[in-house]
């Protein structure tokens, strides 16, 4: 699945227990359409995203950056502190493509060379080890 959206906050790098690092960030996607009455409706969908390949990509994932992500989406549900049910969408990114002026935000020339390639692939994403899809079709 591919999604395109803007980062809602700067990416953060977190250490995992297995000595690996994960880059966490969130994006908002926008959908615009006309309803039955001809009125323009704008709808935003928010995704919490994770990327496991390289923590260095976090330097380019800044609030407002337009990105195209490839990967898999999953839903999550939880109870908040007041006991109210909440739900959200997770996206495990396997590919990140930066759009717009993101390359100009990187100051170190070594990093610019990396990001000029634009597409970053993640081969180290946790897989569905059971071999069964959750899709009903």
Set out the fold topology.
Blueprint (H helix, E strand, L loop, with lengths): L1 E6 L4 E4 L5 E14 L5 E12 L14 E14 L5 E15 L9 H8 L2 E3 L16
Parallel strand pairs: 4-6
Antiparallel strand pairs: 1-3, 1-5, 2-3, 3-4, 5-6, 6-7
| The CATH superfamily title | Nucleic acid-binding proteins
Structural class: mainly beta
Top CATH class: Mainly Beta
Strand content: over 45%
Largest sheet properties? 5 strands, mixed, barrel
CATH topology: OB fold (Dihydrolipoamide Acetyltransferase, E2P)
Q: What number is the mean pLDDT?
A: 78
Integer count of domains: 1
Radius of gyration: 17 Å
Tell me which CATH architecture applies here. Beta Barrel
N- to C-terminal separation?
Answer: 16 Å
Q: Name the overall outline.
A: globular
Low-confidence stretches: 102-133
Number of helices: 1
Description:
The chain contains one helix and seven strands. The protein has one helix at 109-116, and strands at residues 2-7, 12-15, 21-34, 40-51, 66-79, 85-99, 119-121. By secondary structure, it is mainly β. It has a single domain (2-32, 40-121), classed as OB fold (Dihydrolipoamide Acetyltransferase, E2P), CATH 2.40.50. Strands 1-3-4-6-5 form a five-stranded mixed β-barrel. The radius of gyration is 17 Å and the shape is globular. Strand 2 (12-15) and strand 3 (21-34) form a beta hairpin.
């Amino acid at each position: 699945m591919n999604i395109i959206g803007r980062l809602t906050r700067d990416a953060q790098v977190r250490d995992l227990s297995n000595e690996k690092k994960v880059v966490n960030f969130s994006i908002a996607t926008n959908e615009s359409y006309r309803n039955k009455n001809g009125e323009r409706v704008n709808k935003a969908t928010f995704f919490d995203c994770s990327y496991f390949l390289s923590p260095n990509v976090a330097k380019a994932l800044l609030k407002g950056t337009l990105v195209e992500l490839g990967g898999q989406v999953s839903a999550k549900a939880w109870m908040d502190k007041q006991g109210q049910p909440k739900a959200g969408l997770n996206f495990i990114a396997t590919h990140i493509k930066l759009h717009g002026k993101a390359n100009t935000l990187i100051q170190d020339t070594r990093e610019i060379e990396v990001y000029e390639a634009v597409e970053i692939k993640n081969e180290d994403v946790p897989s569905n080890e059971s071999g069964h899809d959750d899709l009903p079709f």
